[in-house]
Design a protein that fits this description.
mainly alpha, 2 helices, 70% helix, rod-shaped, mitochondrion, transmembrane, translocation, Tom22, Mitochondrial import receptor subunit TOM9-2
Length: 109
């Protein structure tokens, strides 16, 4: 083995430079000038800010939905069940009254 200890893997040979007519130099200059552009930095910062705001909005919307859902289950669902039960009881009383021959009761008590 060689004196350098490496853990597995194959090393790839370095690419030969493709400097036909200086194209690599132009591309590298353009990419470095674009990557150092203040417009690019402002765009990245705006995208980061938008992502942060969207994340916070989704988080707070989720919390609000949880609160609304649990409140509905605790307060409104029992009320709906009780109103349905009362309506069924009223219908049963009306059926019994009609079977006994009593005059129908008005809907308003």
């Amino acid at each position: 083995m060689s004196s350098q200890s490496r853990k597995g893997g194959v090393t790839l040979p370095e690419r030969p430079s493709r400097s036909k007519d200086g194209q690599d130099g132009i591309i590298s200059r353009i990419s470095s000038s674009v990557s150092q552009s203040p417009i690019l930095h402002r765009g990245k910062r705006a995208a980061d800010d938008a992502a942060y705001v969207a994340k916070r909005l989704l988080k707070s919307t989720g919390k609000a939905a949880w609160i609304a859902g649990t409140t509905f289950l605790i307060l409104v669902v029992p009320l709906i069940i009780e109103m349905d039960r009362e309506q069924q009881l009223n219908e049963l009383e009306m059926q019994q009254a009609s079977l006994l021959g009593a005059p129908p009761m008005s809907a308003h008590k």
